[in-house]
């Protein structure tokens, strides 16, 4: 447990002054609370019983002063600790998002986005609540427990040792329930992640679910996942409730045992402990009972907070499990693309045990264009994904301007390369943001120039607010063609030297196709362009064409050469809709 909490220190180090202040206040809180029964004893023995009103008044002031300072110290400790924790959580959350965005595509292929959303949101909320309400308050409770034990020893060490006999048993009970709670909490968090992931899938594909009349089946599966999560959560609740009841029972038994022994000491005919009876005045008895209650209250609270503490450790495991994932593609961040010469030499690649590419080789001079065509699943998209450094672990050589890309950081590479993926991704925000994505160096003039290049400036200016038009999630308030034109403008806004189009013009209407084709013609001028083509007009304009089949280059040449060869390219060409389906 201590090791898990130690993982948080690098994030708390920046706020160590707040942490130190919160820690310094803990023994002060303990001292103030431990002093209250001692003040009460003195008040009874030297003020109430003798009838000394002057002494009673002073003890009243002392008691109120101790209560005030304890309250002030608790308030200060709570505020400073919470301030440090919330700042730490914010820094960790930002770091997790940066880390996840920097992980390789293979990691995201294996991970459900809904589960990652759970780790980046609810896990941090759970950690924040657990630290503030569980870990930090438990530290105060332990300090109060220590102070109470010291006060009990001062009052009567024999009765104190009697009360302390229960502590080893209580420690064993807490440890026994702790492991069970940890497993239950971890199981509940995993089932919550699965539930959130499926919820996201249902909401994202809501239209498809309705059209296929699959809502009853989807609802049934959701109910099953929800019930599984509820059962896992209830297991931790039951364990927590049983542990609290057991601790409460031990508290009652210990209080009864101490009172029985104390009464025997106070009895006039007591023959138990001569010499001890003289020390047990009425004030001592009242103070000792209060100490017993104070001692068991932190123990009961600690037991009650065990589920919360286990929740903190579970969240730490899951958060740092993500942060410690090492599937990060690194490299030299100083790379600058100068010309745009692209070379593949005997490149092979596998997704796990499935071989996708086999000895792919080609040369693409700067300023030239190349189309990749072939049947679905032949490996076309894998070629451009490797070039964009979405994956690593290829065999062979891939170079840009003679530099092996395995030594180039993805960030440096993508500063000079524009990639237009097949899937359109638009964000909830203004049209200006969706084109610039707040990337440095993209001015409004660059945005308008990119829109002009894709012949989209006219329809953009006709939208309410123009560039300030608010796009809903995934561009729901735009046509498919308009969404693709915006994605094209996003790519062109950086004026890249190398452009990769991964089936970027699929499923657009004829008018949008005319506009986009004009944009592609403009992009091909004095730029290196690689196109996964599904439009015949785009294919014919490329300097060279590679026909990919079963992960290998089956044919190469320009349109006229490949048509004259009468091979696979011609077969694809002569099939109606062959390129569209690619």
- Strand fraction equals 5-15%
CATH C-level of the domain at 2-323: Mainly Alpha
Cα Rg: 35 Å
Secondary-structure arrangement, i.e. CATH architecture of the domain at 2-323: Up-down Bundle
Strands of the widest sheet, in order across it, are: 6-9-10-3-11-12
Distinct helical segment count: 23
* SS-derived structural category: alpha/beta
| pLDDT < 50 stretches | 268-279
Strands, total number: 12
Distance between the termini: 54 Å
Q: Can you say what the CATH homologous superfamily of the domain at 2-323 is?
A: ABC transporter type 1, transmembrane domain
Biggest beta sheet attributes: 6 strands, mixed
CATH topology of the domain at 2-323: ABC transporter transmembrane region fold
- The helical percent reads 55-70%
Q: Mean pLDDT across all residues, rounded?
A: 80
Q: Estimate the global geometry from the Cα principal axes.
A: elongated
Structure description:
There is one protein chain. This protein is α/β, with parallel strands linked by helices and 582 residues long. It has a domain at 2-323: ABC transporter transmembrane region fold, CATH 1.20.1560.10. Helix content is 63%, strand content 11%. It has 23 helices and 12 strands. It has helices spanning 2-6, 9-12, 16-48, 53-102, 105-110, 113-120, 122-155, 157-164, 166-204, 206-211, 215-266, 282-304, 306-323, 380-387, 410-415, 431-436, 444-453, 457-461, 480-492, 510-523, 536-541, 559-565, 568-574, and strands at residues 342-351, 354-364, 369-373, 395-400, 403-404, 417-420, 429-430, 470-471, 498-502, 528-532, 544-549, 552-557. The strands form 3 sheets. It has a 6-stranded mixed sheet with strand order 6-9-10-3-11-12, with helices on both faces. Strands 2-1-4-5 form a 4-stranded antiparallel sheet, covered by helices on one side. Strands 7-8 form a two-stranded antiparallel ribbon. A hairpin with a 2-residue loop joins strand 11 and strand 12. Helix 7 packs antiparallel against helix 12 and helix 9 crosses helix 13. It starts with a helix and ends in an 8-residue tail after the last helix.
């Amino acid at each position: 447990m201590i090791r898990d909490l130690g993982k948080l220190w690098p994030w708390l180090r920046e706020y160590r002054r707040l942490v130190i202040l919160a820690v310094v206040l803990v023994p002060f809180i303990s001292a103030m609370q431990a002093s209250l029964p001692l003040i009460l004893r003195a008040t009874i023995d030297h003020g109430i019983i003798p009838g000394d009103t002057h002494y009673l008044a002073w003890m009243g002031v002392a008691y109120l002063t101790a209560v005030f300072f304890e309250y002030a110290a608790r308030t200060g400790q709570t505020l400073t600790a919470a301030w440090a924790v919330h700042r730490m959580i914010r820094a960790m959350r930002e770091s997790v998002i940066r880390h996840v965005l920097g992980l390789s595509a293979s990691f995201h292929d294996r991970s459900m986005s809904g589960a990652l959303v759970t780790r980046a949101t609810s896990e941090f909320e759970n950690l924040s609540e657990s630290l503030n309400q569980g870990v930090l308050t438990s530290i105060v409770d332990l300090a109060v427990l220590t102070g109470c034990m010291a006060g009990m020893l001062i009052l009567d060490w024999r009765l104190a040792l009697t009360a302390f006999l229960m502590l080893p048993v209580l420690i064993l009970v807490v440890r026994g329930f702790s492991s069970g709670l940890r497993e239950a909490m971890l199981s509940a968090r995993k089932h919550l992640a699965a539930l959130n992931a499926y919820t996201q899938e249902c909401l994202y594909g809501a239209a498809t679910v309705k059209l296929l009349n699959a809502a009853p089946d989807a609802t049934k599966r959701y109910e099953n996942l929800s019930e599984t999560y509820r059962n896992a959560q209830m297991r931790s609740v039951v364990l927590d409730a049983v542990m609290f009841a057991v601790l409460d029972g031990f508290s009652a038994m210990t209080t009864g045992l101490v009172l029985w022994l104390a009464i025997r000491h106070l009895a006039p005919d007591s023959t138990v402990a001569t010499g001890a009876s003289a020390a047990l005045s009425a004030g001592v008895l009242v103070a000792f009972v209060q100490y017993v209650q104070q001692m068991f209250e932190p123990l009961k609270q600690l037991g009650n907070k065990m589920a919360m503490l286990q929740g903190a450790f579970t969240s730490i495991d899951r958060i740092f499990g993500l942060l410690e994932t090492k599937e990060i593609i690194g490299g030299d961040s100083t790379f600058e693309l100068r010309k745009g010469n692209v070379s593949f030499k005997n490149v092979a690649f596998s997704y796990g045990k499935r071989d996708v590419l086999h000895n792919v080789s080609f040369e693409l001079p700067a300023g030239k264009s190349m189309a990749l065509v072939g049947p679905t699943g032949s490996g076309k998209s894998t070629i451009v994904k490797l070039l964009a450094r979405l994956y690593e672990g290829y065999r062979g050589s891939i170079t840009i301007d003679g530099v092996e890309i395995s030594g180039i950081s993805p960030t440096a590479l993508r500063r000079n390369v524009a990639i237009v993926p097949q899937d359109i991704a638009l964000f909830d925000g203004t049209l200006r943001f969706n084109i610039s994505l707040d990337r440095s160096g993209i001015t409004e003039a660059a945005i308008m120039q990119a829109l002009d290049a894709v012949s989209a400036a006219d329809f953009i200016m006709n939208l309410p607010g123009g560039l300030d038009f608010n796009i809903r999630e995934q561009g729901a308030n735009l046509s498919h063609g308009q969404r693709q034109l915006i994605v094209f403008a996003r790519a062109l806004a950086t004026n890249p030297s190398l452009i990769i189009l991964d089936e970027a013009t699929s499923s657009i209407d004829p008018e949008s196709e005319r506009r986009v084709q004009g944009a592609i013609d403009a992009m091909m001028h004095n730029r290196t362009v690689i196109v996964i083509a599904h439009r015949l007009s785009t294919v014919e304009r490329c300097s060279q064409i590679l026909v990919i089949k079963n992960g290998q280059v089956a044919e190469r040449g320009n349109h006229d050469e490949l048509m004259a060869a009468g091979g696979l390219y011609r077969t694809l060409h002569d099939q109606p809709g062959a390129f569209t389906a690619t």
